[in-house]
């Protein structure tokens, strides 16, 4: 009986666990591959724009933030543009947004370069030549901590179709 319990426990540790939740702080946490969680917050002006970052096993560190913004068709992948990011109504910081991936929906995923810390932020405001978006980011620390617990659980996350990008979400 002990052997059966041990084998069953070890088998259960390898079962994938699909993650797709919305926290009480309105943060989205979902799995994009068997080892990657995506944490995102929808924009308050255009809910198809979002701020997101990923966490992957085994290190479980929040990294690689992206900002999805509606962009002109002329914008090319790989190009950069200047923008400002203001955190918690403090002085805006000029940043460079690198156009990482253009989506068919007309939105583009941008990777910010040299940006202010988002940790502990309640309001993140992004202004670019394409307009302004505000992310009500209160609870970001809780979302980071929750995703870290999930990441360190030892469970694999259910793998999604390889054709989708890690940050593409019905945009």
From TrEMBL:
Protein name, entry field: Uncharacterized protein
Protein source organism: marine metagenome
């Amino acid at each position: 009986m002990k052997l059966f319990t041990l084998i069953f426990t070890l088998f259960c540790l390898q079962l994938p666990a699909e993650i797709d939740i919305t926290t009480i702080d309105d943060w989205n946490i979902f799995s994009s591959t068997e080892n990657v969680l995506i944490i995102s917050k929808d924009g308050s002006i255009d809910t198809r724009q979002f701020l997101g970052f990923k966490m992957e096993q085994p290190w479980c560190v929040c990294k690689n933030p992206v900002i999805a913004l509606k962009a002109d068709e002329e914008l090319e992948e790989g190009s950069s543009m200047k923008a400002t990011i203001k955190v918690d109504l403090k002085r805006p910081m000029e940043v460079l947004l690198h156009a990482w991936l253009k989506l068919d929906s007309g939105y583009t995923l941008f990777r910010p370069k040299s940006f202010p810390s988002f940790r502990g932020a309640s309001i993140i405001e992004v202004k670019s030549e394409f307009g302004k978006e505000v992310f009500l980011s209160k609870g970001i620390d809780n979302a980071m901590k929750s995703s870290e617990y999930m990441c360190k659980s030892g469970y694999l996350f259910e793998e999604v179709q390889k054709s989708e990008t890690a940050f593409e979400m019905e945009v």
